[in-house]
Amino acid sequence: MGRLDRYVSVEDFRQLARRRLPKSVFEFVDGGAGQELTLRDNRAGFERIRLLPRVLTDVSHPDLATTLWSRTYPTPLVISPMGSCALVRPGADIAIAKAAAPRGIPYTLSTMATTGIERMARAVQGPLWFQLYVLKDFDFNRRLVRQAEEFGYSALVVTVDLQTGGKREKDLRNGISIPLRPSLRHMIEGIAHPGWSFRLLRGGLPQFENVRGYLGDTSAGLTIAARVGRNLHAGFDWDDFRTIRDWWKGPLIVKGVLHPDDAARLIGEGADGVWVSNHGGRQLDGAISSIDAIGAVHAAVGGQAPILIDSGIRTGMDVIKARARGATASAVGRAALFGAVEGQAGVERVLDILLEEIATGLKLCGVPGFQQVGPDLISPAG
């Protein structure tokens, strides 16, 4: 039995991360905006759903495959875009992508990643997507999109729910920023977590590699959310979206959609997919949970385009519940990052746990294949 086999759930890795990381870093990863109402409801939404399984169906070979834009992927998982991963462990971006690649799971590289577009493409042989935060400088946006195209990223994910940085109270109290400006508090936390400190010092202080020289103000006291937020294009509108649509010839997914009318209009304006997300509860506190929003989005979009979902997914059963509500695929962020505390092997273990849970869940629900999961699996009582 391998050392990591004793961790049997994503929650086990979350608790490992809580122990291994300085409190301020763990709270940056684990926390949300404001009073964390949306953060909590993301989990509660999944936990409220009850399933109505069927029996006497041959489920001896559960099929986890899902189809996006006529391409079949072996699993229904996607890695969500995440910035600042190197705070957890140097090279965490690449570790997560390398764990995802042999499993056929697309890795979405964030504009605010701590690994650059070119370096990721050269390091990983697997499906790569690029996520664009729409910055004020459209020439800079264009350069990022061109670079993603040049290095073979197969889909563009445009995030639309970050008009400004959400108020992350824990980050404000903890003074978490990039570049990291160590305070006495951080030094004390670092001494208490020598393994983390040694790796960070050896790996070098993380930077937003894709926007080096662009973000400008590196003042102490600015949280990561606030620093990024100052450079976002708060005026981003439908005309701007059409411009970006014209730049990109491949599949374009719009991330951060909760309202069904927005979803329908986006498909009408040329989006190839809608990603239902409240940014993991890190932006608008009090927003509807993604799992509660997706039903209406699915009703509005119908079978016109794939629907992805993130925010709160911690188990394989969550992925099945999301499918029953209309999701074509589910994206995980924090779950993978918790695994990255143990490097690539930790992420591999997290992904295998989720895939095993999906396979077991399909069997116990009496559904031979993931794509056959439908709304009838959800109990009317749940």
Short description:
42% of the residues lie in helices and 11% in strands.
Q: How is the largest sheet built, in terms of strand order?
A: 3-10-9-8-7-6-5-4
The largest sheet is:
8 strands, parallel
| Helix share bin | 40-55%
Strand tally, please? 10
What value does the Rg take, in angstroms?
20 Å
Query: What pattern of helices and strands is seen along the backbone?
Result: HHHEEEHEHEHEHHHHHEHEHEHEHH
Strand coverage percent:
5-15%
Runs with pLDDT <50, length 5+? none
Total helices: the number is: 16
Choose one word for the global shape: globular
Topology:
Blueprint: H1 10-20, H2 23-30, H3 37-48, E1 66-68, E2 71-73, E3 77-79, H4 92-100, E4 107-110, H5 117-123, E5 128-133, H6 138-150, E6 155-159, H7 169-174, H8 184-192, H9 194-203, H10 224-229, H11 238-247, E7 252-257, H12 260-268, E8 273-276, H13 290-301, E9 307-309, H14 316-324, E10 329-332, H15 334-339, H16 343-365
Parallel strand pairs: 3-10, 4-5, 5-6, 6-7, 7-8, 8-9, 9-10
Antiparallel strand pairs: 1-2
Helix pairs in contact: 1-2, 4-16, 12-13, 14-16
